[in-house]
Specification:
The chain is mainly α and about 210 residues long. The protein folds into three domains: about 1-35, no CATH class; about 50-105; about 110-200, no CATH class. The protein is about 70% helix and about 0% strand. The chain is flat and about 80 Å long.
């Protein structure tokens, strides 16, 4: 005999007659239906989803992958018995790790290694130099782009077109970068980071 799910109206076998895998899905399929009709997925389907909303989604997804992969790595080291549960944690960890790595490869994150290299091998003032291209360039780009409030990306323009990076950087750089050698190195690192910013935008739509 079959039961009628109180939320979905679907027929399903009693839990004693079906495996837990199917039971859990059928018992909670109403949540799946609610998820399908969330504004995010509906606007994605219509093609008018705001870009900022999609970016927030992607950031959450990447954070999920990284954090859960770390948790699985911890779990596979803690769970030794039963053996099949350990094997499950091991398998899922490797699967998540592979997916996380392939997902992150789609993003141009190479510049992060340059930040780390500067942080570890240069005086702290040069890390400030490395941060400046992002602050200065994004402000400039936002003011150059010709977008109006109907654009899906107008929020990005508005959030980046106002700012005064000179208030944070100018006096500091002038104070600590005084010799020709210091200024030459600063310019070299600044250009490196400017090129990294360029590559970040360029790789987003190739």
């Amino acid at each position: 005999y079959y039961l009628i799910h109180p939320f979905t109206g679907l027929c399903y076998e009693p839990v004693n007659n079906i495996d837990v895998y199917e039971y859990l899905w059928v018992s909670n399929q109403d949540v799946a239906e609610h998820t399908l009709h969330t504004p995010f997925l509906q606007h994605m389907q219509l093609g008018d989803l705001q870009a900022d909303n999609y970016v927030k989604f992607i950031i959450q997804d990447i954070n999920y992958l990284v954090v859960v992969t770390d948790m699985l790595d911890e779990m596979r080291n803690e769970v030794e018995v039963p053996e099949d549960l350990h094997d499950f944690m091991e398998d899922r960890c490797e699967s998540y790790k592979t997916y996380a790595e392939s997902t992150l490869k789609e993003f141009n994150l190479n510049y992060l290694s340059d930040y780390k290299d500067i942080m570890e091998n240069q005086d702290p003032i040069y890390f400030a130099v490395a941060l400046l291209p992002c602050s200065r360039l994004w402000l400039w780009l936002a003011n150059q782009l010709n977008e109006n409030c109907c654009s899906a990306y107008f929020t990005w323009k508005m959030s980046n077109m106002c700012g005064h990076p000179e208030q944070h950087y100018k006096a500091l750089l002038d104070k600590y970068l005084t010799t020709p050698e210091q200024k030459e190195l600063a310019n070299k690192l600044f250009r490196q980071q400017m090129n990294n910013e360029h590559d970040f935008f360029a790789s987003s739509l190739e």
